[in-house]
Amino acid sequence: MRGITGVIALLALLSACKNKDQFTLNGTLENADTIKQVYLYKQGLVVDSALVNEDHEFRFNVASPEADFYFIAAPGDKNYLFIAQNGDEIDFKTDYKDAEGDYTLAGTKLIDNFESFRKLSSTYQKTFADLQSTFEKKVSQNPAAKDSLVKVMTPVFQKNMDDFAKESIRFAKENKDNLVGFYAASSLDRSQYEKDLVEYAREIKDKFPNNKSVQEFLAYVNKIENLSIGKLAPDFEASSIKGGTIKLSSLRGKYVLLDFWASWCPPCREENPNLVKQYQAFNNKGFTILGVSLDNSKSAWQKAVIDDFLIWNHVSELNQWDSEIAKKYQVESLPSSFLLDPNGKIIAKNLRGQELEDFLKKTLK
Fold first, then answer.
1. I want to staple 27 with a disulfide (CB 3.0 to 4.6 A). Which of 59, 92, 113, 261 is the partner?
2. Cβ count near 138 (within 10 Å)
3. How many CA atoms lie within 13 A of 123 on its CB side?
4. Which residues contact 255 (CB under 8 A, 6 or more apart)?
5. Which residues is 346 bridged to in the sheet?
6. For residues 246 and 240, is the Cβ–Cβ distance under 8 A?
7. Which residue, 283, 353, 272, is CA-closest to 309?
8. How far is 4 from 6, CA to CA, in rounded Å?
9. Distant-in-sequence, close-in-space partners of 281: CB < 8 Å, separation ≥ 6
10. Distance (Å, rounded) from C-alpha 331 to C-alpha 161?
11. CA 25 to chain centre
12. Measured between alpha carbons, how far is 43 from 93 in angstroms, rounded to an integer?
């Protein structure tokens, strides 16, 4: 009994000796003979650096009153993300030459949770990589079959993405009281899973008041919530390519595809033939398009409209990403689109290719 009591006392003493005003990360960089120093970043800024000894080991001791995201940066654009707070003792290990940049973490319940999601994510990433490899191999064997392969493979890619999204949402909700849940939610495509992210944001809005990443996410969701499906599309008036101005609300009574694009955007130009096809098929059923160009050259804008046979209405501020309309609609990439019903309410977003055609067929019977 005396021996057991002594062990318990020793463990209690060791626990008490842990520095509660810092976290400690003990790291090992295998196969990194030339690496002499690594850096620790938080919110894009260097907060510490550590020398790598002859055994490829290093250590960070950093104050973090609340849990936050950090990443270790090593030469060669090697970055390793983790979560830590005061009192944590974390073990980090990686093979510096690992092409995938994989690494392991251990030491706290939060870290174990973080590792669980990373493993989940890597499973779906591997499936994506395998699908991509299969697609490229088939195209190289038969380049003429590329378009048909795209049609066949796209639903498979999408299913993998949707399955990953479902798992990420489940994980986020089960861990909404810690940053691992936020990390899981942040892995989602914001444009495709907007509804889920808005719902998640409501659940965590008061939980991490001092975390910059979370607060930036909540601010973003607050903006896009006003642009979510079912909301009235913000009105605007802008210069028409034909002269004069066009007001979005003047198109009420029709289904309107509000299409953000630019002459210099290759994906936009690739999508234009599909828009032409859908306009021709559904224009007499109450469907129209309003193109909003993020060009800054009027001549380039006009030439693209003519070359691509875009015969619907077009407006532009000719101010590229400084477009006030684009800012109002939180447009961060091109092409982006909003489908509005005859009352001006948003009923769909970013429908392209077959998705747009299927939606219009279902809606405009």
1. 92
2. 16
3. 10
4. 282, 286, 287, 288, 339, 340, 341, 342, 360, 363, 364
5. 340
6. yes
7. 272
8. 5
9. 357, 360
10. 22
11. 28
12. 22
Residue 257 neighbours by CB distance under 10 Å: 23
Look at residues 227, 168, 179 and name the one whose alpha carbon lies nearest to residue 204.
Answer: 179
Cβ contact 357:278 at 8 Å: yes
Residues ≥6 apart with Cβ < 8 Å to 192: 161, 165, 350
Amino acid letter at 87? G
Per-position pLDDT tens, the chain of length 365: 444 545 444 444 444 445 689 999 999 999 998 999 999 999 999 999 999 999 999 999 999 999 999 999 999 999 999 999 999 999 999 999 998 899 999 999 999 999 999 999 999 999 999 999 999 999 999 999 888 888 889 889 989 999 999 999 999 999 999 999 999 999 988 877 888 898 999 999 999 999 999 999 999 888 888 898 899 999 999 999 999 999 999 999 999 999 999 999 999 999 999 999 999 999 999 999 999 999 999 999 999 999 999 999 999 999 999 999 999 999 988 999 999 999 999 999 999 988 999 999 999 97
The pair of three-digit structure tokens given for residue 197, joined into one six-digit string: 């992210």
Task: List the chain domain ranges.
Answer: 21-99, 111-225, 237-363
Residue 55's φ and ψ, nearest 5 degrees, are -90, 10
pTM of the model: 0.73
Report the C-alpha gap between 267 and 289 in whole angstroms. 18
For 21-99, CATH gives 2.60.40.10
As a whole number of angstroms, the distance between CA 272 and CA 266 comes to 10
* Sign of the CA dihedral with 234 first, then 237, 240, and 245 last: positive
